[in-house]
Amino acid sequence: MDIQKIREDFPILSRTVYGKPLVYLDNAATTQKPRLVIDSLVDEYYSVNANVHRGVHYLSQQATELHEASRETVRQFINARSTNEVIFTRGTTESINLLVSSFGDEFMQEGDEVIISVMEHHSNIVPWQLLAARKGIAIKVIPMNDRGELLLDEYEKLFSDRTKIVSVMQVSNVLGTVNPVKEMIKIAHEHGVPFLVDAAQSIPHMKVDVQELDADFLVFSGHKIYGPTGVGVLYGKEEWLDRLPPYQGGGEMIQYVSFEKTTFNELPFKFEAGTPDYIGTTGLAKAIDYVNGIGLDQIAAYEHDLTAYALKQLKEIPDMRIFGEAVERGAVISFLVGDIHHFDLGTLLDRLGIAVRTGHHCAQPLMQRLGIEGTVRASFAFYNTKKEIDTLVAGIDRVRQMF
Ligand code: C6P
């Protein structure tokens, strides 16, 4: 991989912040966009823009073709069996809300249970809590060890005859832990229970194959995989999606409407009420093409090397505390240094041009488990370099000495 050449594809990476070269290490929050993704958005607005699935006219058909071709790109990328299994949403959060609402309405009654994990993002906790408030379901939580690895023995013990679904992240946005979701899905299936994978933090970094995992549902956001904001995906096995009721009502998701009775459209449109972000889906497909062009195996190997280097360098800083020491880990490192508040450290690093995230990272129950309020988090993409990590380490050292 020629990183310098790759960096040239991302215009924002050459800008400065406070007169310093930008060191962008907040990729778990959102990734930067290659020029071809940005251009695709502008080009489509300039020359194709028309609403999809609605018009007989030329532009509408062209826009529809682009939108549906993007669905096929996503299908191939995650290896779904059919494009009927690829629902476009606004992002991971909306995908989970859709699933919780439709699945909860159809398959969960008072006293039924969902299993999630202690490290989940709020997006995979709060929708279940809202369902709990509506329907009286119970939420069971898989614990972890101090390295940040889920305890599979405890997981198995959580199943009961009231367990209706398991919903767990593949990679933690705080600890970097790569959870063994394939094994966890197998266990769920042995209990006859479907499994939702939150792939928000895995999809940009590793090959995710829904058939290989045997995932029943899988969700991710376009903006975390170099695509535009406002577009995401819910994958679901067709046999499940067929049985779920629609999430929102409106145009596109209907077959026939009268005041007496409405019939719903077929998959995937049943879950896509209203005008979709058809420009965004083109951008997402371009981003996927770009990632495929580099190759996920190369990306994974490079980021693994980069993360190992960063861990080694960071550990040499006195009073460094790293949260998350799982054997299987992704390109995310959360840390605290001495008693420097994470917000102060993040703010001072920002003045040096280094963008990291600080706070609870939308995982407050995990913070409670760790006994802290928040961390500083550096998260990497394939365009980051060892030199940038050296800048981070030097920056932290400088702040540490100030304190
Ligand atoms: N995590 C982070 O900085 P949305 O906002 O819908 O695109 O993604 C939500 C989400 C769901 N699950 C996981 C594992 C996530 O990491 C995220 C987003 C960002 O960690 C923003 S809070």
Question: Helices and strands in order, then pairings?
Answer:
Layout: H1 3-8, E1 16-17, E2 20-21, E3 23-24, H2 35-47, H3 58-78, E4 86-89, H4 92-107, E5 113-117, H5 126-135, E6 138-142, H6 152-157, E7 163-169, H7 181-190, E8 195-198, H8 210-213, E9 217-221, E10 232-236, H9 238-241, E11 254-257, E12 262-264, H10 278-294, H11 296-315, E13 320-323, E14 332-337, H12 342-351, E15 354-355, E16 357-359, H13 364-370, E17 375-379, H14 386-402
Parallel strand pairs: 3-15, 5-6, 5-7, 7-8, 8-9
Antiparallel strand pairs: 1-2, 4-10, 9-10, 11-12, 13-14, 14-17, 16-17
Helix pairs in contact: 2-10, 3-10, 4-5, 11-14
Ligand C6P binds next to helix 4.
Structural account:
The protein is an alpha/beta fold. It has 2 domains: 136 residues, Aspartate Aminotransferase, domain 1 (Alpha-Beta Complex), CATH 3.90.1150; 255 residues, Aspartate Aminotransferase, domain 2. Helix content is 40%, strand content 17%. It has 14 helices and 17 strands. Strands 4-10-9-8-7-5-6 form a 7-stranded mixed beta sheet, sandwiched between helices. A 4-stranded antiparallel beta sheet has the order 13-14-17-16, covered by helices on one side. Strands 1-2 form a two-stranded antiparallel ribbon. Strand 5, helix 5 and strand 6 form a beta-alpha-beta unit. Helix 2 runs antiparallel to helix 10 and helix 4 packs parallel to helix 5. 46% of the residues are buried. The model has no long low-confidence stretch (mean pLDDT 97). The site of ligand C6P has 16 residues, from helix 4.
